[in-house]
Amino acid sequence: MNILVCLSAVPDTTTKISFVDNDSKFNTAGVQFIINPYDELALTKALELTEANGGEVTIITVGDASVEPVMRKGLAIGAHKAIRVNTEALDGMHVAKCITSAIEGESFDMILTGRESIDYNGGQVAGILSEMLNMGLVNVVTSLTVEGNTITAVRDIDGGRETVSANMPCVISAQKELCEPRIPNMRGIMQARTKPLTVVEYSDSYAETKYTGYELPPAKQGVKLIDAENAGELIDLLRTEKKIL
Amino acid sequence: MVLVFVETEGTSLKKASQEALTYGADLASKLNTECSAIAIGSESGLENTGAYGASKLFAVSGAGLNEFTPEGYSEAIHQVASNNNASIVLISASYTGKSIAPKVAVKLSASLTTGVVAMPNTENGFSVRKTCFSNKAFSDVEVTGEKKVISIVPNSYEIKEFDQNAEVVSSDIDVSSFIKSKSVSIDKVQGKIPLTEAELVVSAGRGLKGPENWGMIEELADVLGAATACSKPVSDMDWRPHSEHVGQTGITIKPNLYIAAGISGAIQHLAGVSSSKVICVINTDPEAPFFKAADYGIVGDAFDVIPKLIARAKELKAS
User: Fold this and answer.
1) How far is it, in rounded angstroms, from Cα B167 to Cα B54?
2) A209 partner at 20 to 30 Å CA-CA among A37, A124, B48, B290?
3) B219 touches chain A (CB under 8 A)
4) Same domain for B132 and B214
5) How far is B18 from chain A (nearest CA, A)?
6) pLDDT score of B188
7) pLDDT for B191 beyond 80
8) How many Å lie between the alpha carbon of A196 and the closest alpha carbon of chain B?
9) Do B299 and A225 touch (CB under 8 A)?
């Protein structure tokens, strides 16, 4: 099996988000970047599948050289090789075009992504890739098995779950529960330094959506404390003050 | 034309679809155009599309549309949007919507904006507000494509009722050649409010000490008519199903009321719930960071407090 995993470098989940340049840019000062947690699941699942069925896992990331440490971590976890598309990721469409351009001529049995990135939360790339590459799509997947050329996946649906089967090649997006993420070991970290990381260019910077400004949610006015002895008062306040209940 | 994809649940339109329709009708009147709805394969529950803002309803069925597939549904929407010159396609960010919006955008060569939470600003171009950094912030996105696909976050637009009936246009189309996946089985949790659509949510964390203590959380949720949720550690330890995990790597929700018991309020958890209109926090630790993000706080043990809330809610319900 030949699997492509799309990895995105995102701010660590503990990051306190702030903006600079008149709230027009994300403030990356002091921010630790990690593999997007859902992409990490996608990578681990890809490794499990190739360990069981043979084959290779290629990771691909769109970004400048600053994303390479995150990609090296992907290689340390076990990916066989990496491709970096050397351009700034503009939006989901642009990222998908970067990826399809970079893998032109190669054939993958499966493309695995996270169900969304935790920075821009688009959840777009898996769907766009499936359409551009004319592949099947199973989105937000919590369980995945492969038999011959057929995959069986369990995906989240509104109010429940659905089991779906599809033929490869296909695009799968990973949801929590798909597998336990792996922590790279020392051998993996050493090997990652010499695994191939190819840099390719993509010069088209056309995008139809542009992030123009950011805003933090308004701060709360301050908490109103209720005595635990009279906890029931909360229900009354929700009725009278907030008119919710 | 603004075309809104709608879904039904039983015999009525899904709440998220009602919101998307109202959004579509308001947007259409802003742009001096009309709002139409598209429903796929549904037979019942579509009577009220007019009342939520659609002047026309495209009821589409045919080969390949008897069950949901991303390929079949997106192709049907694509065909109806193209044949009727839709300039904007609105899709609620339900799991179904998330699977089809990107595909529809590619098919239509449209720009795609997902996670939108407010009406666009059309004064100077077309700018929409979306959530980003997993609800830790909002961003404004300028959309320049002539055609646009927009997905709207559930619970972010208020439903209005319109005094009109939708003209129904039924059509039969064959999308079977597009299908690439097959539904094997569907397992729906019966009688539970989907967390993303719930207006009231009762949630609990590690402070509850074990899964056996969730009875009172469920009882409180039940008496209030709320959905239940939990923190990440709780779903990681399998005390509760992961579908209840709200937070940065779980589900992000924006209910009217979020009651959290025994959750300290780590930044990742806050990201998932901070858009809730009213937040109530119950925690034994007065220093718990969650109190800073709360509207109401009770410093106390959930095992004492929750039964009191249940008792009072029952009293008021009975009176």
Assistant:
1) 9
2) A37
3) no
4) no
5) 16
6) 86
7) no
8) 31
9) yes
Q: Kindly state whether residues B293 and B264 are assigned to the same domain.
A: yes
d(CA A90, CA B311): 53
Distances (CA, A) of B284 to A37, A90, B295: 31, 45, 17
* Minimum distance, in Å, between the CA of residue B203 and any CA atom of chain A: 16
List the CATH code of the domain at A2-213: 3.40.50.620
Q: Which residues pair with B188 in a beta bridge?
A: A160
C-beta atoms of B185 and A16 within 8 A: no
Mind listing the pLDDT tens digit for each residue in A99-149?
999 999 999 999 999 999 999 999 999 999 999 999 999 999 999 999 999
Q: How far apart are CA B223 and CA B314, in angstroms?
A: 7
Chain B residues in contact with A138 (beta carbon < 8 A)? 181
Chain B, 137 to 176: residues with Cβ < 8 Å from chain A are 137-145
* Chain B CA closest to residue A230: B308
Torsion of CA A196, A201, A207, A210, to 10 degrees: 70
Count CB neighbours of B214 within 10 A: 18
Q: pLDDT, tens digit, for every residue of A206-226?
A: 999 999 999 998 888 899 999
Same domain, residue pair B97 and B239 = no
pLDDT digits (tens, 9 = 90+) for B3-34: 999 999 888 899 999 999 999 999 999 999 99
Substitution target from A120, A135, A241 for chain B, most B beta carbons within 10 A: A120
Q: Is B296 on the interface with A (CB under 8 A)?
A: yes
Looking at the complex, does the CB of residue B88 fall below 8 Å from at least one CB of chain A?
no
The reply to whether residue B267 touches residue A13, judged by beta carbons under 8 angstroms, is yes
Residues B15 and B51 sit within 8 Å (Cβ to Cβ): no
B142 and B256 within one domain: no
How many contacts (CB atoms, under 8 Å) link A and B? 271
CA–CA distance, B240 with B111 (Å, rounded to integer): 38
Q: Can you give the residue range of the structural domain that contains B152?
A: 2-178
